[in-house]
Amino acid sequence: MLPDIVRWLSRRSLRTLHSWGAVAGWFSYALSPTYRRRFKEHVAQAGVARKTARAAIAEAGRLLMELPYLWMRPSSEPIRPSLQVSGDALIAAAHEQGRGLVLLTPHMGCFEVVAQAYAERYGSRHPITVLYRPARKAWLRELVDTVRTRPGLATAPATLAGVRQMIRALRRGETVGLLPDQVPPDGMGVWAPFFGRPAYTMTLAARLVQQTGAALVLTWGERLPRGEGYAVRYLAFDEALPQDQTESAAVINRAMERLIMQCPQQYLWGYDRYKAPRSGSIAAAFAQDHKD
User: Fold this and answer.
1) Which end of the chain has fewer surrounding CB within 10 Å, N or C?
2) What does the buried/exposed string (b/e) look like for 238-265 if buried means 16 or more CB atoms within 10 Å of the residue's CB?
């Protein structure tokens, strides 16, 4: 039943889905005291004006409703209705150097479109592999695994095998995409400040760069108003990454903060960023692949 609904939604216009998503976002906010509390706490922690942050409530709903539109789009069709790209000279520079490339994006705007836009533009020569956490529901896991794989776009699960897959991709001069503000499994992160509060932060991004010599670029996909499409923005990562894991995590968190403050209206403030990590470690992947 649910896959049928997803397919039905995928045939609606982006403008319609974003309209419905705005309503869904406010319903979720109204019906969940936990979500409201977390949203308000995170906004206050970041020092964002409440009036500015209110727009993010509707944007969270739009994030959910646009997924069928992007997932079910035929792989032969370009992203519609409009796709704007800025800062792509940074991508071209990394490709010209023959280096692997790590793209970092926070939970802001449409992070799903970032990988698709990259694959559409560069994937034929420089494929991208994105890290994801497999869904717990079997039907959803099967659906997501199917629709996310596209020409020039591969997925890697947040497992030991997935880490090895990303390392191999970077060593081939390909690209990897990560959400560094996602809480990693226990053993794959360190506690580092995020908007002035300790948050368990992945070390994966920095270690991939340090181990493979890959370039590092920031990116995010802005959701344009009235369902007009998306603007994918690439920005320079302007701080050197220290070798120390805690220090490098703090540097990456600062980069995410600067990016988020460019458009706090589209950040997912309800995400449980400060939670304790779940059990399970894939840190051994780095040690093993370093030997290989």
Assistant:
1) N
2) eeebeeebeebbbbbbebbbebbeebbb
